[in-house]
Design a protein that fits this description.
alpha/beta; 2 domains; 6-stranded mixed beta sheet
């Protein structure tokens, strides 16, 4: 059984159809890329899968349950987590508290245990803090634990957002342009880290990425969107030579860029 099954998903903004009959099946442990030119509908797909938007049509089955109408917090509790194209950190909170907040859906303490700050709640707080510190260490961010998130360099804010998404131990991780704003060295480190994390945490990953070097190095297969419709599904290498993909990316100029990025 697939971990995620998306069938005939559609969504419009007024008279503009952003996503049309989108289909996707993700097996456990897969790493799949969702690519396409700007405005193709990629982030809308992420927002539909993660519960930010409600679809106009179609179904979303995750971990064996129909979550089509579920709010985001229920999807997170079931084992889905994501990052955003525009970094969404609590920038006045410390780096440590940003990651600890990512584990909130996993807390076992009751409301009254939290309000009363019982021994059981304090023990859980201690354990969650240790888990957050360990996650920061994995991303090389432990030295920033008490630093407000806004003071981190851009590339490390990206890493912090991924660390926060991972602390809840998701089954499915949705990464929206994780390499955006990173230099080449940071991008290579990110690719190696994502490979390691996927194996260690048995993650299923769906990612949006414009950097074709990342896509080619990480993804087992890709789906290409254009004007809300899927125009290609298959191996990343095959996408580079597919005529509809090249046309969507505005032809020869982008074809040269794709090849040189390889």
């Amino acid at each position: 059984m697939a971990l995620l099954e998306v069938t005939n998903l559609s969504h419009s903004f007024g008279g503009l159809q952003a996503v049309a009959d989108f289909n996707l099946s993700l097996a456990r442990g897969e790493l799949v890329g969702l690519i396409g030119p700007n405005g193709a509908g990629k982030t809308t797909v992420f927002n539909l899968i993660s519960g930010v938007y409600r679809p106009d049509g179609g179904r979303i089955i995750f971990a064996g349950q129909d979550i089509t109408s579920w709010p985001s917090y229920r999807r997170m509790a079931l084992g889905m987590s994501r990052t955003f194209q525009n970094i969404r950190l609590f920038k006045d909170m410390s780096v440590l508290d940003n990651v600890r907040l990512g584990a909130f859906s996993q807390y076992c303490s009751t409301f009254w245990q939290i309000v009363g700050r019982t021994a059981a709640f304090l023990e859980e707080e201690r354990r969650r803090t240790q888990e957050a510190l360990a996650m920061l260490a994995r991303f090389g961010l432990e030295r920033y634990a008490q630093t407000p998130a806004r003071h981190l360099p851009y590339g490390e804010q990206r890493r912090l957002e991924i660390a926060r998404a991972l602390i809840s131990r998701p089954q499915l991780l949705l990464l929206d342009e994780p390499a955006a704003g990173m230099n080449q060295a940071e991008t290579l480190e990110l690719v190696a880290l994502l490979r390691q994390l996927q194996e260690e945490f048995h993650l299923t990953i769906l990612l949006i990425e414009h950097h074709m070097g990342v896509v080619l190095n990480l993804c087992q297969r890709v789906l290409v969107l254009d004007f809300g419709s899927t125009i290609f599904a298959g191996a990343p290498e095959a996408a580079q030579a597919h005529p509809l993909v090249l046309e969507a990316y505005l032809g020869k100029e982008v074809e040269d860029d794709l090849v040189s990025d390889h």
